[in-house]
Amino acid sequence: MRLFLVALQFLTRLPVRLRRFEPAWLNDCVRHFPLVGTLVGAVGAAVLVGAAQLWPAWVAAVLALAATVALTGGFHEDGLADTFDALGGVVPRDKALAIMKDSRIGSYGALALGLSLLLRAALLAVLATRPMLGAVAALLASHALARAAAVGVMVSLPYGGDVEHAKAKPLALAVALHNFVIAIGWCALLLAALTVAGVHVPKLATAVVAAAFAAFVMRQWLQCRLSGYTGDGLGATEQLAEIAVLLAFTASF
């Protein structure tokens, strides 16, 4: 529970208060990132289902997206923009890391962020016109699997930035494999629950493959350009994996 609260404090804007804090907790709390993602997805699903009763699908989709962004404070969106600003152009590693630290947003970041928001809103609007079980499942799975994807990148790569200036130094050192195994366990429990609820297994399987593919692509990109991950790179991984899972749920097959 303590590590879950640390993860909740780290990934969301919820007013979580802890009486004391140990740096090692931040390193181990990543095991619960998918659980926090499930909570964020549940909020988005509740807004989507409720808003769809009152407004057109595209309005409900934007409101659901706004709810999740507000809950996380645009944490992952910021990483997406910074990553594409840094890696979108052909610049040396040191220059790319300097661009990531710059609070200003450039054309690559603006394009990536705008297209990400537009595509997610469009996908949620499609889901809002279909049976709501599928929409709820898509939101829960996309947020949980996307955060598991980020943990997978963390486990498989060393930190590629400046450790001394990292925003979360324990995460910059190393993430133990067992934390990733626990994160996958949370995803497995969620997928099992969705299967029992009646969600089609092929959709869930495709969603898992889509999230894994997004994680693999980001891992290779970060390794090639930075020789490791950064916090912004993890945010970009989460966003791309989230989109990949939503695409899997909305695909016609």
From TrEMBL:
Pathway: Cofactor biosynthesis; adenosylcobalamin biosynthesis; adenosylcobalamin from cob(II)yrinate a,c-diamide: step 7/7. Its EC number is 2.7.8.26. It is found in: Cell membrane. It comes from the Bacteria. Pfam families: CobS. It is an enzyme of class 2 (transferase). Coiled coil: none annotated. GO terms for molecular function: adenosylcobinamide-GDP ribazoletransferase activity. InterPro entries: CobS. It catalyses: alpha-ribazole 5'-phosphate + adenosylcob(III)inamide-GDP = adenosylcob(III)alamin 5'-phosphate + GMP + H(+); alpha-ribazole + adenosylcob(III)inamide-GDP = adenosylcob(III)alamin + GMP + H(+). Keywords: Cell membrane, Cobalamin biosynthesis, Magnesium, Membrane, Transferase, Transmembrane, Transmembrane helix. The chain crosses the membrane at residues 30-50, 57-75, 105-128, 135-159, 171-197, 204-222. It is a multi-pass membrane protein. Its cofactor is Mg(2+). Belongs to the CobS family. Joins adenosylcobinamide-GDP and alpha-ribazole to generate adenosylcobalamin (Ado-cobalamin). Also synthesizes adenosylcobalamin 5'-phosphate from adenosylcobinamide-GDP and alpha-ribazole 5'-phosphate. NCBIfam families: cobS. This is Adenosylcobinamide-GDP ribazoletransferase. It comes from Pelomonas candidula. The lineage of its organism: Bacteria, Pseudomonadati, Pseudomonadota, Betaproteobacteria, Burkholderiales.
